[in-house]
Amino acid sequence: MRYLHDLPIRRKLTVITILTVGGALLLACGSFVGYELVTYRATLTRQVSTTAAIVSRLSTASLVFRDPQSADRTLEALLGEPRVVSAAIYTAEGDLFASYQRAGAAAPPSRIAVGEGPRDTFTTTRLVLHRPIDWDGGTIGALMIETDLAEVTARLRRYALIALSVLGLSLLVAHRAAARLHGSITGPVQELAATAEAISTGRDYAVRARGAGGDELGQLTVAFNHMLDEIQGRDEALKTSATKYRLLFDAHPNPMWVYDPASLAFLAVNQAAVRLYGYSKDEFRGMTVREIHPPEDAPMLLERLERSRDDLSRLDGLWTHRRKDGSGLDVEVVSSDIEFDRGAARLVMATDVSDRRKLEAQLAQAQKMEAMGRLAGGVAHDFNNLLGVITGYSELLERSRQVDGAGQKRLEQIQKAAHRAAALTRQLLAFSRKEVIQPRVLDLNEVVGDVERMLRRLIGEDVVLVTKLGRDLGRVLADRSQVDQILMNLAINARDAMPDGGNLWIETSNARLDASYLRTHADVRPGSYVMLAVSDTGHGMDQETLSHVFEPFFTTKGEGKGTGLGLATVFGIAKQSGGHVSVYSEPGRGTTFRVYLPIAEAREAPVSAPVEPSAPPGGSETVLLVEDSDSLRPMIREVLAASGYEVLDSADPVEAAGRARAHPGSLDLVLTDVIMPGMSGPDLVKVVRAARPSVRVLFMSGYTNDAIGRQGVLDPGVHLLQKPFTTEALLVSVRTALDQAGLPRAE
Known about the structure:
Elements: H1 2-6, H2 9-64, H3 68-76, E1 84-91, E2 96-101, E3 119-122, E4 126-135, E5 138-148, H4 150-185, H5 187-202, H6 216-251, E6 256-259, E7 266-269, H7 271-277, H8 281-285, H9 298-307, E8 317-322, E9 328-340, E10 343-352, H10 354-399, H11 405-431, E11 440-442, H12 444-459, E12 463-468, E13 476-478, H13 480-496, E14 502-513, H14 515-518, E15 527-536, H15 543-546, H16 566-576, E16 580-585, E17 591-598, H17 600-604, E18 622-626, H18 632-642, E19 646-650, H19 653-662, E20 669-673, H20 681-691, E21 696-701, H21 705-710, E22 720-722, H22 727-740
Parallel strand pairs: 12-14, 18-19, 18-20, 20-21, 21-22
Antiparallel strand pairs: 1-2, 1-5, 3-4, 4-5, 6-7, 6-10, 8-9, 9-10, 11-13, 14-15, 15-17, 16-17
């Protein structure tokens, strides 16, 4: 009844008519077929029972005298009964005594239970009768007769077919009758209701109801159409406005989304959000705002959402969000209340400030170092004046010969301390970039060659020193003594990081720092440089230590074993020469310092119009990118994708191995960092090559080539891209790794 109540009038009348007529016909047909079945069953049972009684009496003598041949002849008389399929006579023990079956019929069972008395068994195709054979007051055997019911089955099928035909014809007639009834009585009302429903579901206010004459229904239709005219005008104005909210939303360069304040479910997102977060629009619609926040921020998120009911601005500000790949990003959020799909919602615009915050941190660090440099320079200047007084008077005292033997020794100690203090002062001045220098054009290969012998004596026999000097090295404009000081300080630091011995590498090469490098290094100028790298296999440094490594007087050595000015001096010299210093280190993996000094020719060349560089090589191969740095990986992915490559990227090497196995298409190159948490780059390559033996490999590392190779991390001859690298160096290295592996270049 509930179903009929919800149906429209037209369907309700049709259903009632069909149910009434169909129910009556089905009842009649069912009664007729049931009667036929019961009647035929009773008749057939009587006929077969009569035949069974005759066969039983004729078989009594055969059983008494144990004459199976006579029993067989008795059963052969059943040939005249076409419906009998098989028959059998059994002894009192239930053993088969004699049998008969038509061609193609199954043989009777070899044994039955005789003492169960008369019984009949009906199936859809067979009637089986069991009758006992009695003699002299006892049961001496049993008779089984199986009858074919094919005739009755065929008859019932004919009856059913006739009944269904009559039923279908009757339902058709009933349907047409109901339709005529609807047309004459409820047609106008139904037409008006259908028009209203079409407008409600399709939101098409251009639809109009057809006229129904001059009666009350006609007047209602005219008023209804007039109302639609007014609604259509307002709807067109709203659609125009909404089309402009929507275009601005979709085309906005910043990520934007709309969510339900009650359930926190995403209702809509723009394309910028899809690009930044990595989720598709369909995936966003199945998520809540909570899922783009790290789990540890859940309490703060819920608290600010609760407070935002009274003050929406509490949701604005800086947040840490999480991309689909698990990487984090810093965003600045602005939100507002809106109406969306006739309900209350909130519109959010997010600005990615990850790079800005990194640059702000670097700028703050640079400002701190600048302030410390000014302080150190001022202290060194005043301290130099005091040292001048000390050394001057001590020399005068020494020349006056007014000091005896014991006093002379004390005077020598005062002078030695003053000289050491002067050396410290020079280091402070180098850090503050106020030391008086005499720059000249230098070949760093010559400098390394001249200092190498002294360094071998300095670092000791348990440290192996290896130099790798670049070819066609550019010249730099620097103070020779300062460059020597850089090499000495870095070599001493490397030696101290390897108390049990190890390897020390000094390398030189040309380098170019472009805009991509500047995105994460705010204090660097783009251009051509000569790189001087010093690497060791020592104990390495963690991130906390690295953040203070260039600060003056910061040291990890024991008391009395270091001034904390060595690396500060290196930093100051590089800056004073217009260069830059970077450090790459991990605990237990050694350290690499890179000093970049500007090429002298590049600095002294006349200004000319910029020359457009040739397009770096690209391709269409598939690259698996594995890099745990959340700031570097998106940049690499963007560069490769812009050059035509298909990129599968991951921050987790274990996840990357699974993606490599599950990727349905080809996989041409694995571009991976060497040292990562959980699994190293070489171990990842072994796992990937187990499933894809022909895949090519390009490693990335902040360590130098020789440093990586001689530590045993990578096999000799592998492709290695050193960090930091330019975008051109990245694309050339990727193309080289693919082409040298024998793969055709994709134009």
